[in-house]
Amino acid sequence: MTFISPTRRSPKLNHGLELSYLEWGQGGEPVLLLHGLADNALVWSQLGGFLAEKYHVVALDLRGHGDSAKPEMGYACDDYIEDFHALFEHLGWSQAHVLGHSWTGKLAAIWATREPQYFKSLMLADPFFNSKIPNWWTITFPIAYKVLPFLKLMGEFPSYEKVEAIAKNLKQFRGWNEWQEAIFKASIEPTEHGRYRSKFVKRACDGIFLDVMQEVGVGSEIEIPSLFIQPEKGLNRLSFQLAPYRKYLKHLTWQVVPGNHWAHIVEPAAFNQAVIEFLS
Question: For the whole model, what pTM was predicted?
Fold first, then answer.
């Protein structure tokens, strides 16, 4: 299979909000790829490249992330779904295969529950915490921001070398190859004072936790053809975590793949094969 490089596009959509995305191919069925919290569209560059011969693939930098806009507010579930509506209209899509990882696995499930008409299929890659997070959990935000490994790149750093050293020890960059380095570089930017900062902003993190994480992901029957990708060392390993997906996804394909929560980055070949087989 030939690997095809993406095109970067950054139109202004949804009341003038700049939403940047990577695009592969112009033919075939639409596929929308949604990255997890604090990530960016480049995490899908291998999968997008391999799907491009048969599909029209778009990987979005979600608002608050990557090269997309970072408004002062507007990080609720409804805001993201409005972005998806605007993107579909811009692309001329009426339906798509939608793949979400971690936080956007939950977000995609919420969207599919509300508006299944937009989905050709629903693909969930190790979705994050299907249940609601209680309101009192918000008081733990300062602690969570310090201890959650994937948030260690959020903020500002004195030098590129300092932030790169942190990245090399994170699970999503295990192995640290050229592609992982490119993903990392796409997540930071220099400041005018010679420092480096994350493109993922704290107000987005706060807003996502406050709203999206206080909704149930899969909590009622979904008739859309669905794929659950379970990494061997991912978040979802216990029976109570897996039960809602087995119960409510009525046309479900289940794939166990090697790797950790970021299997699409650390074990992309097996992950991509699972997606390709499902779509085929």
Answer: 0.96
